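Annotated sample (chain length 701).
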Amino acid sequence: MPNSTIKVALIGNPNTGKTSLFNQLTGLNQQVGNYPGITVDRKIGQCNLYQNQKATILDLPGTYSLNANSLDENLVVELLLNKNDKDFPDVIVVVTEVENLKRNLLLFTQIKDLEIPTILAINMVDQMELKGISLDIPKLEEGLKTKIALISSRKSIGIENLKQLILSYEEISTEPCLNASEIDPEYFGNLRRIYPNQQLYKLWLVISQNVNFGDLTKNIIQHQSFAKTDSELKKLQHQETVKRYQFINALLKETKKVDSSKAKDIQSQLDRILTHKIGGYAIFFGVLFLIFQSVFDWSSIPMDFIDESFASLSSWVSENLPAGKLNDLISQGIVPGIGGVVIFIPQIAFLFLFISLLEESGYMSRVVFLMDKSMRRFGLNGKSVVPLISGTACAIPAIMATRNIENWRERLITILVTPFTTCSARIPVYTILIALVIPEKKLFGFLNLQGLTLMLLYLIGFFAAILSAMILNKILKFSTKSYFVIEMPNYKIPFYKNVGLNVIEKTKAFVFGAGKIIISLSIILWFLASYGPNENFDNAEKIISSQPETKTLSEDEMQNKIASFKLENSYIGIIGKSIEPVIRPLGYDWKIGIGIVASFAAREVFVGTLATIYSVGSHQDEEGTIKQRMKDEIHPVTGKPIYTFASGISLLLFYAFAMQCMSTLAIVKKETNSWKWPMIQLFFMSGLAYLLSLTVFQFLK
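Output written by the structure step:
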């Protein structure tokens, strides 16, 4: 039994239940990325195998074969080639799905040629009886020269047996299933002669895939006298695939039986309804409508409770701590900053819950298939729907998820338009503004008007992305071919553990990711709002008291007048006043301007910024929620509320279209390897947001 931690790599085609198996093996003991969303990089977790023996589990991106056609597949190939990689596995678990063994086994036979201990995990065995499928496991193990674990990652079937196989991985044969070099014995014989100490199939992958393998590269190997042209290599690659499928077909003919008379399948009937060319779209938009209605209705009670609780906490701190700067910092800076994060947990959790349910049930793949034909008119393909939909969580992993799009032109267009999709960071802004300017009414007795507005904002973002894609499709001219392949997974009841882990992981990412930024900025903003550079700030009480119109004010009114005057003459007030002329035509004042500037760090910072500013700019003993303080804000010149229907809609549209996230710009630069495209995004989206907000405010005011 090995003493050190066993490194296990989970590899498989998309939709084989690989991530569900990862969750079963690791539970909550996972190290995930900084951003919520689908797996686009290596995901790591810890698993207890037996007593004190542990394993490190790597969940690698889904791949159909080692013939890499995308960045995700390249990541898998390069890891398996480089033994010096810190994540190089001791044993590989290839996850397959019982109904699609033929296609899944192509990847397995390729990995076996790398001479790494490899276990075959056949998932969804609970469906075998339902589908009328039977397998001859001993004969299958003999043919594939491996050990097989029959599992159901959803129902925890066979997980302990798989752990035992991992534990005894050193006993598993590393002999390949078939001799792929027979496709051209002379060529592969020359390779073996010149590189006798290298694995033959690794050399072939370096040549055919042009991936990194230590000091060896395609160019170095191809300098030999027996080098082949790219077209000849493609022909050999095709012959290899044909040879592998011939082997797989012959083996499965003897080991897998399907008795359709015993099958009890309703999947085909559901697919005819859910992917119908008219009815499918109606069902999809109906599902979206129900989601956004529920998000607003279900979350309103906990959100109101959290909002009032933090207002009370801020007031309690102010009254019970000794007066001074520390009191002000906590009551006016830290507490409102934390409240600006926590208040949106219910809505974000509900949104992630519904998205997880759609993915787990298998419905999301039908949406991708349904949308493919429509997407192609705009220069995208069905796979573009995944980034656009996952962008509702965060644009960053959504943009990274475009690595699954093989066509560079379609991938670039998807990257450029994905930030239009309404992400979770916009929810705090949308929620607070909708609550302020949209009446809490029900149309026809059951349609929540605020929920309907939220859905319209999501649709506006989606259609803006589609329209922008259509424009880019006309402008960008790259001569590339496009292929679309997607697997329709079985419909299944969502597994509560996967859904729960997904909601917890993504909500935590929002709270801790956005929370650190918001609280840090809240402290900075409190400082900038609590100090000023000139005498007006220092002598605020004296100046206000000397004004004739203040003689009749009550004590509370006088304190609020002094606090507002000090805020205007603070550092942050001066910054806000300097940008106010630019944003005044949009219906915004200098305080909103500060929120817009601060939210370039992250969109959700906007609400926390205003919470801090309004806390500092009011009498410290006054108790009120963030929403109430924003509602009570009056324009000093017009004497009218700042947040009217016109200014509220203008601000909603500004955040719907503006590129208000530095992290998104950074990831676009990384994925396109150029500052050209993120700069185009920034100026185009911000300019469009300004023009639309200006037009709408001037029309509605």
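Annotation: DSSP finds 31 helices and eleven strands in the chain.
Annotation: Residues 133 and 258 are 5 Å apart (CA to CA).
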